[in-house]
Amino acid sequence: MALPNKAISLSSVSSVLPSSVDKLKNPSPRAQMNFGVSRNSSVKAVQSPAVESDTGKWVRQRRPQNVNGDFFVDHTCIDCDTCRWMAPQVFTRVGEMSAVYKQPISSEDRLKALQALLSCPTSSIRTEVPPPDILEAQKTFPVPVDEKKLPGVYHCGYHSEKSYGAASYLIIRPEGNILIDSPRFTEKLARNIEMLGGVRYLFLTHKDDVADHGKWSKWFSCDRILHSEDVEVCTADIEMKLEGNGPWSLGDDIMLIHTPGHTEGSVCLLFKPLKMLFTGDHLVMTESGLSIMEMYNKSSVPEQVDSVKKLLHLDFNWMIPGHGRRIEFKDVPEKDAILEAFVQEKYNQYSSATNKWS
């Protein structure tokens, strides 16, 4: 089984993680909610009741669900899942938050725990003793996603609370590097990216995950790309606003696909050379299976289901979401079969879907 911080291989984890098809046969109660979703809902509104503590001190204490030892998660965890897929050897989910279930022993596990600590959007991962090797961990970002299979693709780390802990990725290409969604701005990360050639474009998949886009744009003098339907006051000065339904191209190797639903202007990025689709919040892989995160939909769930259907027959076998696990499908036919079953099940669940399966 491939480590979750690299990718979930659907052809090899069926005995450990329910396959998407199996999950569709037994959808969770959350997945069965109707379409009456508030358009004003916000993932950022989700927080632990502990945040309301009068002093604010208790929330920074270690949760009792952590095992004894140096690393721990405090009560400010927002259950974004980042640490659990970055360092699954150390972190797990207990009581709707993350916790340390095993202290890192090897140097590799310790590095992954420190990378998760640096990437935690709420700084909820802490240590009893200041880590002497934290600077070395900082130098590792951006981290290669898979040096052998996906050369030139990096995970930036430093997830931002402004985007509820969404992941940001960097694609290195001769035509100009692309930063996908905005990580938390840190000068150290910016200088590390500079050493990889900087950033030509900052592609924003949708309005929820723009985070520190302004700071990144100013540092790299890069062009930001966002669909016009998702432009708000904070993104009014975006350089490149996508209009209409697309698709759009950034050279021969990049296709941008309009996938409205989660938001009106959600767009996926297809990196053709490595058959990778970056989906933002349009379609994600959670700990329990594929999801369109209906409870956080800000536009139209039926339209989002229809947009998932758009992904059928596109030539990709890697799915890189903004939240949750990366997926490596065995091949395109397997991808299509899983997505077709997922869409069919959603249409069956929601009889009000606009376009019935044909």
From TrEMBL:
TM region(s), chain numbering: none
Residue ranges of domain Metallo-beta-lactamase in the record: 165-323
Lineage: Eukaryota, Viridiplantae, Streptophyta, Embryophyta, Tracheophyta
Protein name, as recorded: Metallo-beta-lactamase domain-containing protein
Biological source species: Hibiscus sabdariffa
SMART domains linked: Lactamase_B
Pfam families recorded: Fer4_13, Lactamase_B
PANTHER family: METALLO-BETA-LACTAMASE FAMILY PROTEIN (PTHR42773:SF1), METALLO-BETA-LACTAMASE-RELATED (PTHR42773)
InterPro entries found in the cross-reference section: Metallo-B-lactamas, RibonucZ/Hydroxyglut_hydro
